[in-house]
User: Fold these one by one.
Assistant:
Number 1:
Amino acid sequence: MPHSGAMNDASIKPPAAPLAGPPPERVVRPRDAASLILLRGRRDDLEVLVGRRSLKARFMPGVYVFPGGAIDPPDRVAWSVESGAESLPPRLARAARAAIRETWEEVGVLVGKPAEAPLPDARLPNTPPRTAIERAFRERGVAAAFDRLTYVGRAITPSHSFRRFNTRFFVGDAESVFGEPSASDELEDAGWRQIEQSMLDGFRDVTRFMLARAVAMRRGTASGAAPLFYWAKNARRIGICREALD
């Protein structure tokens, strides 16, 4: 610094330019989704309904998962064939519709109970079903029973993933399942599988976590509020899902 006199323009150095580097990665916003864990069997001899994602799938190819998928706009509108939706907050009711619909689309089974009253005939012109899933329930004489599903928890895909989901998980019992599971383009090798270590080893950590929670709920040993499974700073975190408290 000069000892006397004013600083002239030549003495003022511009700030150093920042070092060039890769642009920051864009964080993908997670898409709302829902999944259904269906269990059958005795307390210590349980099976779960799963299928293997196609090797052509962009998200988790070749991995065994529960039926499920994204919540679509039509899932926000009540079905003519549903019952018990008032047992869930509106956000979870939308998720339950998506979980039931995706289960039917991916493995070909309906989840509900026999309709207490005859449902409108889907073939009549004055009572056309709004969606394909409603038509399937009507033709089977089954009502989509939301009150036979129990909310398990929620999971959010890590922020570094190129495709992210904010998924709500529900559990239901085989007594509420109508039809036999079959494979589809989305889920191959679909069917009931014995819950054993060899199968669990092939699951992703979130699948194992939600299955363990669902089994504990079935056995009456689960404690605490519905969990929120997420990642922060590349580490797995377990919080409380506030949606279940609404």
Note: Residues 1-24, 122-126 have pLDDT under 50 and may be disordered.
Number 2:
Amino acid sequence: MSLNRREAIKRGALGVAGIAAGARALRGASGPFVHPSHDPAVAGAVGQVTNAGIDPHEFLEAFDYGTVSTSPAGKTVRSFEVHAVDREIEVAPGVFFPAWTYNGQVPGPTLRATEGDIVRVDFRNLGTHPHTIHFHGIHAARMDGVFEVVGPGESYVYEFEAKPFGLQLYHCHSVPLKKHIAKGLYGAFIIDPRSRRRTAREMVMVLNGFDTNFDTENEVYAANTVAFAYQQKPITVLQGQLQRIYMVNVLEFDLINSMHLHGNFFHVYRSGSALQPQDYTDTLMMCQGERHIIEFTYDEPGMFMFHAHQSEFTELGWMGMFNVVAAVA
């Protein structure tokens, strides 16, 4: 029996059933597959990722508001520095990927502004290939990040008014486009409405994957790059507290990704472009480039899963847990 790398990882090389199971899969030996949800002794990938470029838990709530100044016209100006950098990152224990990054991390930093702000991005290409930044939203053609290709060692300044409000996306638009996205050049861009949304605990989840053997199929899937990060260390949420997730799908090589929440339903604000939800569900399907805001509250304490509703994605890393705890009086 011969298995390719994808099958080996699926059967356990990422640690779903442990390193030993991965070794057995590579040798072709048979053995029972124990899903982590059925075995409390197993919690996602075996071992620790120490060189991912980000800490997935810190990334969840890290928002870059830029350096703030005021224009002569009295508008708020938010200035950001974004650099393209080649860097190897660890996407699962012992699984390394030669990434192209914004600011040395995948995803890039979550940029945040308010509708009507002037956004100024000083982009420098410190990598070895031509890159750009294409921002989703409304802006002038010369700020679109398509034809203004920035070569290695060069720079470009993007400047535009932040609009419309909602959850946007930025990514490299150099060709071949699928390679530049698959290698890691993307991030979330939040434009807040002038009238603030209701108070909530806020998180960012960028859904991505990694083709570690360059066969145009992903071997690793994740929310925020590191496979099983939120299963190994569940996200603690307070019972009764409103949770808001800014969710962006940038998965390459697969047409559709998804989010399924256990034991609950969530409100969906499609593209984050409205202040009232357009849907109420427990499973959200997303094409590449789609992004939505979801909101939910857990009324009962306990451990609840969230994951892609494509079983293969779940088994290869896109899986997490919310640990709902009672608020301390």
Note: The radius of gyration is 20 Å.
Number 3:
Amino acid sequence: MAKSEDSSSAMQPEPNPNEKLAKVFESEDESEALVVKGILDSASIDNDLTAGSLVQDMFPGLGGMIILVREEDATLARRLIDEQRARAISDDETAEIQAIEEPPQKE
């Protein structure tokens, strides 16, 4: 009997086990890693979020979350991450300046 193919599997290429990956992000904070993963997903950059959990008794301070991308996407991924960080720092500085310049309103 002929095997019917799922249309979604026909559109997705098979993963290449020999593909070179590059680490573009590492953080101890899972929520930060999820935000970065979302940024890369939005840019259609395939990525893999991996827990780098090692035995903390043997390797203190090692672990956290790691994001890997294809080697050819690494430069773009790092640029997007850096741009987002710069934007976040700029937004924080603007909020601090506004808080200093605008005294609290009295009721």
Note: The mean pLDDT is 78.
